[in-house]
Amino acid sequence: MIWFKILCVLGAFAGMEFMAWFTHKYVMHGFLWNLHEDHHVKEPGFFEKNDAFFLIFAIPSMLLFVFGSLNGFDFRVFLGLGILIYGACYFLVHDVLIHKRFKWFNKVKNPYLKALQKAHYTHHSHLGKEEGECFGMLVVPWKYYRKAFSEVKKAQASQAQANS
Fold first, then answer.
1. Can you tell me the distance from the alpha carbon of 99 to that of 51, in angstroms, rounded to the nearest whole number?
2. 158 contact partners, CB below 8 Å, separation of at least 6
3. By C-alpha distance, which of 56, 34, 54, 45 is closest to 129?
4. DSSP characters for 86-134?
5. Whole-prediction pTM value?
6. How far, rounded to the nearest angstrom, does the alpha carbon of residue 85 sit from its chain's CA centroid?
7. Each residue's pLDDT tens digit, 109-131
8. What residue spans define the domains of the chain?
9. How far is 133 from 152, CA to CA, in rounded Å?
10. Which of 112, 110, 79, 108 is nearest to 96 (CA)?
């Protein structure tokens, strides 16, 4: 039984990466561009219309928690938990690591995190609704990993040379 619950959490988490990619590409850069557009333009202020997507993505998780808890904490609670965990990761990666809305992670040296940053910065280099690449959040094309690993190796080599 515990394995089924773990699979529900992991499955929902993994499924959310696809949902985030799909929604970002076809909804945010589609018919709800009016909510997402301000995210691609640096404007003063802390909040963006784009922040409404936080609620849009949170609603299914909340509903799964409610309906699952009303039915003896069935599988829906664990699907909701997977979505919630993905949302927390999304917040930490997107709002904290990439856009630095909170100054918690200033100097990133991890190649995976650097690859996420590079991919998202590439996405933001396209300002139009119809343009863009790298619509996912936690899974990005390999070329960004290669660039990040290369940069980390160079930084480590120069640090080692400076220390000797």
1. 13
2. none
3. 34
4. HHHHHIIIIIIIIS-SS-S--S---HHHHHHHHHHHHHHT--SSS----
5. 0.85
6. 11
7. 888 898 988 888 888 776 677 66
8. 2-163
9. 24
10. 108
